[in-house]
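Write out the bound-state structure for 2'-O-acetyl adenosine-5-diphosphoribose.
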Amino acid sequence: MEKIVILTGAGISAESGLGTFRDKDGLWTKYPLEDVATPEGFARNPALVQDFYNLRRVGAAAAKPNPAHIALARLQTGWPGEVVIVTQNVDGLHEAGGATGVIHMHGEIAGALCAFCGHRWRAPDEMQVAEPCPACAGPGGRPDVVWFGEIPYHMDTILRHLGEADLFAAIGTSGQVYPAAGFVQEAAARGIPRVEMNLDPSETSPVFTEHRIGPASETVPAWVAEFLNPAGG
Ligand code: OAD
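---
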């Protein structure tokens, strides 16, 4: 086996204290996603949207990687083949845990994007309404995150990796948001093993070939240890 592609979602960061979206008390039970995670919501009420992401930026900056993030970084260094991490998360906890080359398909909360000229820069802790772009000076600054109705980043690269993968794993994702939820189908079409690590069965559980139910901080290090040391000795 050469290449492992791993998709992660909010569940991998839950034990670092960052909320998930759809669990009980999840973010989308408190903030309607139409208001804070769509271009239309931003056009209607940019202050609300900037405040929502400002809060999350501070939370993400204060959070620490948990044993699941750290175990994936260990897999990357210990595995002789390639380990590609694709995350839907906008926090930087994979990198904080030591992972490299992480593909952020839904963008990054630490980044700012100019809606006018497309320039990207490091977001200040608190972005303002009409945040000025350092490149074009227009008031188009927004969080560099992908909203509903927008196309996720790096899809060509992700599909190429999936097309070359020998194993697919998904960790802490409810399998409700496409295109990420469809990656397991791509893997199934190629007949490669598909491992799901989640607290409960997800929408796409039936398409996986192996299930490890439990908190990611336990299931992921155990899986990585088995992988790197199959004899268990
Ligand atoms: P969800 O909140 O939809 O799902 C989180 C999943 O993680 C659920 O299936 C939980 O059971 C599981 N989970 C919770 N705690 C866990 C733990 N400690 N260990 C393992 N699993 C745990 O989050 P995502 O699937 O990441 O997109 O959501 C996908 C996208 O929807 C997000 O990237 C975001 C959101 O709307 C945008 O904002 C565009």
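---
The mean pLDDT is 96.
Residues 15 and 99 are 18 Å apart (CA to CA).
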